[in-house]
Amino acid sequence: MSPRDPQQAERRHVPPTVARQSSLRDQNLSVVTRTLFASGGATSRAGLAERTGLTRATVSRLCQELLDAGILAEQRPAENVRPGRPGTPLAPASRTLAGVGIEVNIDYMAGRALDLAGNVLAEFKKPGTYADSDPAAVLPELGDLAVGLVEQVRATGARIVGTTLALPGLVESTTNTLLLAPNLNWRMVEPVPLLGPRFAALGVEVTIANDAKLQGLAAATLSPGRLAPDSTFLYVSGDIGIGSAIIVEGQIEGGRHGWAGELGHISIEPDGPPCRCGSRGCLERYAGKYAVLEAADLPLDSPPGELLRRLEAGDERAHRAVHRAGWALGIGISDAINLIDIGHVVLGTGLAPLVPWLLPAILRERDLRVLAARFLDIEITGAAPDSSPASTGGALRALDAVITKPAQWLGTAC
Question: How far is CA 16 from CA 5, 7, 263, in A?
Answer without folding.
Answer: 19, 16, 49
